[in-house]
Task: structure prediction
Amino acid sequence: MSLVKSIRVSIALALALTVSVSGVAYAADPSIDANAAGKIEGSGATFPWNQYTDWFRSFTDENTEATAVTTGTSLAQFHSSNSGNSLVLGYTGGGSGAGITNFYGTARKSPVQMFSGSDAVLTSTQRAAIAATDIGSKYSVIPAITGPLSVVYRLDGLKTTSGAAATLRLDGSVVCGIYLGTIKKWNDPKIKALNPSVANLPNATINVVGRSDGSGTTFVFSSYLGKASSAAQKNCGYHSNFTSSTEANLNDAAGTFTPAQTAPGTYFAAIRAANGAAAITGKPGNGGIAPYVKATNLSISYVESSYASKYGLKEAALAAKTKRNGTTVYLKPTTASINSALKSAVNAEDPINPSTSFVQPVFAAGVNSYPIVGYSWWLIYHEYDNANGTTLGQVQGMIAFMEWALTDGQKSTYLYKGYTPVPATARAKALAELKKITFNGVSVWP
Result:
């Protein structure tokens, strides 16, 4: 631990100064008792994977246990791999669906399942499954990070009429048509209409790619499709009257808007077949889709934007909801365009313990608002105890890490490219939720 960090922690613990971080006042930074060791692991969403692994590395580097802590308290009890003597942060992906299932599964509250990650809100069925366990209603869902999705593609040699490299423009109606299978070729008139300056859209079949697992990234993407599609596309099929996998048309009246984690290849299977379109290619995780698109010409898909940067993928410029003087504005994800979307949406939606009707901040108003932005949440238990093999030190370590991630970790220094901070008001509420955590019935961070 650096001298500056050590002094800061020592002062906070010794004097119990009242400080305020992101608007939440508390007596001291989280502390960790001596001799803490073991794994602190979570599972679920791959949307935040790059950010989580980067956070783990940074936090561990700043709080490495160089000398065994045997007395008192200290944050410097982390290690990158030695869980026998120190605390080790870890996270397995599997998608939001797996993270939610694991949250109430048999390993719940154990060192290998201390929290879950999800980019999808809990459904009524999932909430009932959680309530049926010893968890009951004693858990919180708090935003850890935000980020945009990129619509990524590979079209080799795409050029403008002047011969320069071209960027593809798309809007919600066209992206919906591509996934429904009503738009099958890259030179479809609807794509050409959005790209008048592109000289050589190929007369070739679009290789449509989507997640094959239960995915929060898909939940965010389907939220965009449902909000940005045309009225005739009826939420792009994401409504209560559309039957996943068997619905062959859009004839039913649009019911309640219902974004889904379901793999697009499953959700749109029947309607694509009815439209004469090939099956959607499925890949697990953002880390499965990104390299596939990179390697496959004529393909299109969606990933959290950090994966587009990591794999050097082409990102489409997407139509904003609000026009500028009657002209459509096309945007790529930037810090400014993401923050504009979050600011526009945050007044209507509270991302703390979101309800089943919560809508991700997609297709937000504003000429500068990028249209596909999402929250990624942590699911945390309120009650931990020895019965599940977890120790007080591990719970203290988890809280210490999460408090850091929600404060220092939101600064540009610690943000992985392609992610953006949670709005300050939401972070303040998230920190307050960490105060609800107990170990053997005693508050861990009073």
Remarks:
- The CA atoms of residues 3 and 326 lie 57 Å apart.
- The longest strand covers residues 139-154.
